[in-house]
Amino acid sequence: MNNQKNHNQYTFLKSSWLTTTRGSMLAIASKEALYLLEFAGRRDLEQIIKDLTTKTNATILPGRTRQIDSIEHEINAYFAGSLKEFKTPIHLSGSPFQQDVWHTLMSVPYGNTISYSEQAIAMGKQSTACRAVANANGANHLAIIIPCHRIINTNGNLGGYGGGIAHKQWLIDLEKKNRT
Fold it and tell me: Do 102 and 146 fall into the same domain?
């Protein structure tokens, strides 16, 4: 996983819309790694793409890379219930705290959910850090791969999800059904 890059170097990323059983998803990747995977209905998607170009000093062009082909195959297998762990290389573009949050998310087992406060405690933070953790979860732009859909409110309510609550509920149900 490539977390840092020399930002003085200019980068070209490719973007492609993927057709899935859950609707269109946008994938953005370099030759080496996937930078973004989001549902078409993701709030603020245009701003997220602008921020990505700024953070990476990149130009995003229509097209495909090996990593986009890989995630398209994997996401369709995941939606079919036959894939539980993604292998497509990813690039994390966030603060050290956000990256810690995202690594903690990736340790939540397939088919399980935990609360925001449990996630904060798993990171070695106080449960009162759950708001900061929730904000970092919301800054995740690798939907499903970094499984922020597995984080719910302490009272069992779903909480938020950038891709929409209907997608979050469907993802939780899919994983619970196929967890064994």
Answer: yes
